[in-house]
Amino acid sequence: MEMDIKNIPAIEYRNVSLSFDEKQVLTNVNLSLQRGEMIFITGVSGSGKSVLLRLAIGLERPDTGQVFIDGRDLAALDEAELLDVRSRHMGMVFQEDSLFTGITAYNNVAYRLTEHGVSEEETDKAVLEVLRFVGLENDTEKLPSELSGGMRRRLEIARALVGWPSIMLFDEPASGLDPLTASQVLDLIIRARDVFNISSLYVTKKLDEIPYLASHRASQSGANVTIAEAAHEGQPVTKVVVLDAGQIAFEGSVAEFESSSLPAVARLTHAETETLRSDFSPADPWDKRRRPTEAIL
């Protein structure tokens, strides 16, 4: 019988440490992602941000400590059980392009379901639903090489979202995209998060993405979904975590992050040598040059 997970963190790291080739990557990390929460993980390059995601999906194992998904200790699971957790509960959008180049957009999205024995009828329904969600329903038979960079990124998101997992892991999903496409990707993430109550870890070095994702919400009325800035009391549940040399140097609200004078935070907010501003500009996301969210997504 499955446990009642409503009051259990979606992801929990307990005293997690990890090293590669005697280099300490994470040290005594304690962090919990609650239901429906979005945690922004930031820090300079090499601080351990992406490693946290790889631990959550079981691609890495900690040297010491435990990682729990929906209350289940990943270290206690065999390969079949770990695969089941990944396929049923989690989706991940990698920073690198991870599409299968030799198969169509449809088959890229269907791959995970097919591998796990989901019926052809159920697979078709799930794949077409998520491709409509990301605006690629007319591109099902195209190969990744026939898609633009923004379309490929939306396909990556569709592949991660198929079956609507309760947990999503994002590793700099808007990195390298042009401003309009980056804003579309962020709106897509907001829409998935709010409409399907997804809990998510969002890794980024682009600090302007954080207040946008933290202040905007998606609302649904019938088939229409709109995204707008929310009043303070209606904003999504979020927090910021700053990693510094593999340790949590800051954990708090977006407002606390923006006003913090901690050295690890100041190195980010006052950086001069590292690109920490994305091509995405949130100043006026609803100007007339943008199509309505429903049309884009």
| Mean pLDDT over the full residue set | 87
Residue windows where pLDDT falls under 50 for at least 5 positions: 282-297
Helix content: 25-40%
**Subunit arrangement of the protein:** single chain
Give the N-to-C terminal Cα separation: 38 Å
Shape: globular
Structure characterization notes:
- With 297 residues, the protein is α/β, with parallel strands linked by helices.
- The protein has a single domain, classed as P-loop containing nucleotide triphosphate hydrolases (Rossmann fold).
- The protein has 10 helices and 12 strands.
- It has helices at residues 49-56, 79-89, 105-115, 120-133, 149-161, 179-195, 209-215, 254-259, 263-269, 293-296, and strands at 11-20, 23-33, 38-42, 64-69, 72-73, 90-93, 167-171, 199-203, 216-221, 224-229, 238-244, 247-252.
- A 6-stranded mixed sheet has the order 6-7-8-3-11-12. The chain has a 4-stranded antiparallel sheet with strand order 2-1-4-5, covered by helices on one side. Strands 9-10 form a two-stranded antiparallel sheet.
- Helix 3 (105-115) runs parallel beside helix 5 (149-161) and helix 5 runs parallel beside helix 6.
- Residues 282-297 have low confidence and may be disordered.
Task: Briefly characterize the structure.
The protein has 297 residues and is an alpha/beta fold. It contains 10 helices and 12 strands.
Descriptive labels:
12 strands, four-stranded antiparallel sheet, 297 residues, alpha/beta, disordered C terminus, Rossmann fold, globular
